[in-house]
Structure formats: structure tokens, C-alpha cells
Design a protein that fits this description.
Length: about 350
């Protein structure tokens, strides 16, 4: 995952854009539906980022399967800090911190501060839940007949675009393309089944949204801009957990899917490896492959590491390591070799 996209993702979690609360409030609304689908991927993306305060001690994982399951375990815990620590070598983490700080040094504008304050007030103020439910009724329920005809159309359109782009990837084998396409189709079917008039789901999502916003304890944009990477990504973990609960209110239980992940096959070839995993999404069996590379005896996602290093070199210059290997993505981008904290392996999380 490119460094600038990780940094932008974390900042977006902590500093919602103007109007974002309206969109999230009605995940079945026209803007909210797209945000919900985008968010399902966004939740996965964001977990790639961070080094939180008081992060637990890691025991390096020396085999590819352990590297993959370490990442899956971090995602299951919504531990943004741990996820990045198993995704990047220490020197790359140091350079990511530097890139983060450079971005933080850019002062916020008055318009950005006002937009942030408006969003936070809408989400955390007295009676926020009631206000958002009223907004949901006005923006979504009132237009539910139209939305019920549009949602399947959007679902098929998004599925077709994404699957077509996967099929055109020259760097993926046919089995890898099939695995990614099957996962996209499963998400598209879920997307198409969302009921915009489901008041109970909307109520649960709104409760989670407001509770999460309050748990973040953010009072101003300047507070966010003053955070170092450790603090920001510790807060991002709170946001990820809340977002997963919001998706679950609409039937997309990411934790349930992560609980089913099992390593099926590992093929090592020198300092490269492929790991195939099996998991369930909405009760349907799915497969995915990770390509990993060994660096200093530890395994890391090959595409993530290569793209990140090139992005950091472009952003920071200097003597940081860059990769001369072309990225070789395969299905989900896999993490590296740090074993998860002294917590249960994913196999026992069910």
C-alpha cells in the first residue's frame, strides 16, 4: 500500500470531510451506499497503517504462513499498529513516520477547521443520534422506492468494472484472478441486498457511529494535526473497530470472515513465497493468495513492500532502501513476517 495512501487513509479516519456524517448515517442512501462499499475496502486498507503507543511486543515470524496469519490476526483485532509492524521492516516504518510528520507540518486552513468542527458536532453533540435518525428519514427513507431500483444497478455496475479490471491484470495468474473476482462478486451481491428502508439497521449503525466518534475524543482539527503517528494510529484503531461494527449492522461481518481464514498451501522458492488461504464470506467458500518476499530473515508482502519503498523514496528521497523488483500483487496484499502479539492465533478466534 503506497505510503501516501496509508497516510491519507488515517487522516480521513480522524478528520472526516464535510458531509461525511450524512453519507455514513444512511449506508443505504445514494451517497451512503457507495461509501459503505468503499468503506469495506477502506477498513482493510486502513489496517495496513500504524505503530501505536504501547504496542505489544512482537515475536518475529520466520515462515510465510505465520506472516500471513499475523496480518490476519492484526486485522481481526483492528490493531492498526500491529498490522503495520507486521507489514514493514523497521527502517521503512521509520521513514513512514518521517513522511507523516512532513504532512503534519502543513497547517490546516480555516475552512478545513470549520468543516471538521461541523462534522464532529454532528456526530458527538447532545442528541446526535436523534438528529442523524431524522436526517436518515429525510434523505433515505423518503427516497427508498427509487433507491431500491438503483441499488441493484449500482451493484452490477461496480461488480462489472472491478472484475473487468482484475481480468486485465497481466501480473495475476488465472486462478488468482478467479479468486479475486469471486470475492468481488460476493461483496456485490451483499451490496445489492441492502435495504434502504431498514430502520433498525440504520439505528444500530448510527449508534455505533456516534459512540465511535465520542471514543475518539477529538475536539479540533488542530488536535489531529498535532498528533504524532503513534497517537494517530492508536486512534485509527478505534475508528476501524467502529466501522466494522457499522458494516456488521448491514450484514457484512468482516470479523466473522477473518475468523474463518485457514492457510491451505505454502510454496517457497528461495526468498519468495506464495501462500494460499481459504476463508468464508457470507457463508461462501473463497480463496486468496499472498506473494511474499524474505528480507533479513523475515517475510513481508511483496507488492506492499515494493510500492511503499518506491513511494517513500519519491516523497523523502535520501538513502532509504528502494526495491528494484517489479511489484507482483496477488489477491489481497499480504503482510509480513511479524508474528502477532502473544494472543491467540486466528485459528482459535472463532
Amino acid at each position: 500500500m503506497p505510503a501516501d495512501r496509508i497516510i491519507a487513509a488515517v487522516r480521513s479516519l480522524l478528520a472526516p470531510a464535510r458531509g461525511a456524517a450524512v453519507s455514513v448515517t444512511g449506508p443505504a442512501g445514494s451517497g451512503g451506499l457507495l461509501a459503505c462499499v468503499r468503506g469495506a475496502a477502506f477498513a482493510l486498507l486502513v489496517v495496513l497503517g500504524g505503530c501505536a503507543v504501547e504496542a505489544p511486543e512482537l515475536k518475529p515470524t520466520r515462515d510465510p504462513a505465520g506472516a500471513v496469519m499475523a496480518f490476519v490476526g492484526a486485522m481481526r483485532q483492528a490493531d492498526v499498529a500491529l498490522a503495520l509492524r507486521v507489514q514493514l521492516p523497521p527502517d521503512d516504518l521509520r521513514r513512514l513516520r518521517e513522511a507523516w510528520q512532513r504532512g503534519q507540518d502543513i497547517p490546516a486552513t480555516d475552512a478545513e477547521r470549520a468543516s471538521f468542527a461541523q462534522s464532529i458536532a454532528l456526530l458527538t453533540g447532545k442528541g446526535a443520534e436523534k438528529s442523524l435518525e431524522t436526517l436518515y428519514e429525510a434523505k433515505v427513507v423518503r427516497n427508498q422506492a427509487e433507491l431500491r431500483t438503483q441499488i441493484p444497478m449500482w451493484s452490477h455496475l461496480l461488480e462489472g468494472m472491478l472484475v473487468s479490471s482484475v481480468r486485465m491484470r497481466a501480473d495475476l495468474s488465472d486462478p488468482e484472478k478467479d479468486a479475486v473476482a469471486n470475492g468481488i462478486s460476493a461483496l456485490a451481491r451483499w451490496f445489492g441486498r441492502i435495504d434502504p428502508g431498514d430502520r433498525e439497521a440504520a439505528r444500530r449503525a448510527i449508534e455505533v457511529l456516534c459512540a465511535t466518534a465520542r471514543d475518539l475524543k477529538l475536539e479540533s482539527l488542530d488536535q489531529v494535526r498535532d498528533m504524532d503517528l503513534d497517537v494517530a494510529l492508536a486512534r485509527a484503531g478505534i475508528a476501524v473497530r467502529g466501522f466494522k461494527r457499522m458494516l456488521a449492522a448491514y450484514g457484512l461481518d468482516l470479523d466473522q470472515a477473518l475468523d474463518t481464514v485457514r492457510v491451505e498451501d505454502v510454496v517457497e522458492d528461495g526468498d519468495e513465497a506464495r501462500v494460499r488461504v481459504r476463508y468464508e464470506l457470507f457463508g461462501e467458500p473463497q480463496t486468496a493468495q499472498w506473494r511474499l518476499v524474505r528480507v533479513d530473515g523475515r517475510w513481508y508482502g511483496r507488492q506492499t513492500l515494493g510500492v511503499m519503498r518506491n513511494q517513500l523514496e519519491a516523497s523523502l528521497g535520501g538513502s532509504g532502501a528502494t526495491t528494484t523488483e517489479p511489484p507482483a500483487p496477488a489477491g489481497p496484499e499480504s503482510p509480513a513476517d511479524d508474528e502477532p502479539v502473544e494472543s491467540e492465533p486466528v485459528e482459535s478466534l472463532r
